[in-house]
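Per-record layout

source: Elysia marginata
name: Prohibitin
length: 262
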Amino acid sequence: MIGIATIVGIVMIAKTAVTIDSGRAGVLYRTFGGGVVTEEPPLGEGFHIIAPWNKVIIYEVRQQEILENMKVLSSNGLEIELETSAWYQPEWSKLGLLHKEKGERYVSRILQPAIRSATRSVVGRYTPEQLYSTKRDSIQKEIYKETKEIVKSQYIQLNEVLVRDIGLPPTIKDAIERKLKQEQESLEYQFRLEKAKKEAERQRIEAEGKALANKILSASLTEKILQEKGISATLELSKSGNTKVIVIGSGEGGLPVILGNQ
């Protein structure tokens, strides 16, 4: 009898004990008490004791990732292959409602259709060239925004949507790359022209400045001032111990003519 009681006890403990691992949470289902518990927080990590006739449904509540590969149409009807990924997690406080209304397959029932719908809507507003080059970041943000709007009332927390790859037909891709290369070469040529124009303008301004300075200097040098400067320079030269000045007459403006200098 003791052995039977022990076995029964072990079975009861096994049925009433629930251990929830890290990063997970449990939704309690009361068989005789209204089914899924939605008015109470979910069961957190650790060890829990429940009635043997109840059960616990365990969910991953950490951030998870889902990959989506799809074919969508651009604004001009060209088929585009798009690879996206979404980071998501269930809303912890509403885990009971998520289980009751959406179920354990909420990703395939709610999130994936929302991502596909938002992606088709956004990509359909852009040309292949915009998708491939200039608008990739904008497209990514728009897909995230529209997907989040769809799932915001579905007890799903959407953290990010990433556009990982955009696939175009080879002929279209080559044409876009040639056009981008030509545009880059044109921009480079315009830059060189602008740089040459600025250098020419700098040289013109510098030349005008020098010409103006020379004009002002010429206007200020009268004959009398030049004569005084010549006399002053001659006097300074005569004071030098290594200089011999022999005056044999007068030069232009009445200045002495220097014949010897050692």
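summary: The chain has a mean pLDDT of 80. The chain is about 50% helix and 25% strand.
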